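### Sample
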Amino acid sequence: MTHASDTSKTSDPSRAYGSGAGAQGGVSAPDGRQGPAVSRAGLPEWLDPVARAADRIEPLQLSRFLPPESGAGRQSAVLILFGEGPAGPELLLMERASQLRSHGGQPSFPGGALDPEDGDPRTTGPLRAALREAEEETGLDPAGVQIFGVLPRLYIPVSGFVVTPVLGWWREPTPVRAVDAAETARVFTVPVADLTDPANRATAVHPRGHAGPAFLVESALVWGFTAGVIDRLLHFAGWERPWDRTRRVPLDWHA
């Protein structure tokens, strides 16, 4: 599977380094650096539908906003981290500090822009960035995270970010917290059962008329890019339950 702006399959980290059950251990990137592996070995069975979805989902099935063919946009990555909690399978989210210029106050996946030391954005750079940013923002130990897939790169027009969603299994959970209050208001987990509950689903409507999926969970309204990716993952994993798409939640002008 290639992306709209890709020129070869090697620009997709999950394809360049393998995401099958046999892929494991560190791998060498084209620049010779040892990078994170994409591995399915030992995944719990309940994650199999997500792993299969990652193999077949196409960019336009995730979002209509794809990276510009010109190559413009700031390369970034987010970590979509699944774990097991008291209420069963869960997803790690954080709430961005309200004073941030970009997406301030929004619940989101841990993540951020690639740094030069992360390496090639066409290969293992996004994997390194997703783990590094998650550690910096939530305090989790990356050693306990197993990357099992990479979704197609997407584009966030309002901020100009080209985002690679990296799928992770929290094999060995560690305590998490808001490491820097200037960037993160809080860190929390959401049971997948709550995300699939029709009572927690709605359509968020921006004053400009934009509308998209939303989740009302853990005293938060999850909307925008994060909600869109969650919505599509639930759908393609076969976890989605029928919900009332006419239920509207208005956003304010600061959203």
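The first strand starts at residue 27 and ends at 28. This sample (CoA pyrophosphatase) is used throughout the tutorial notebook.
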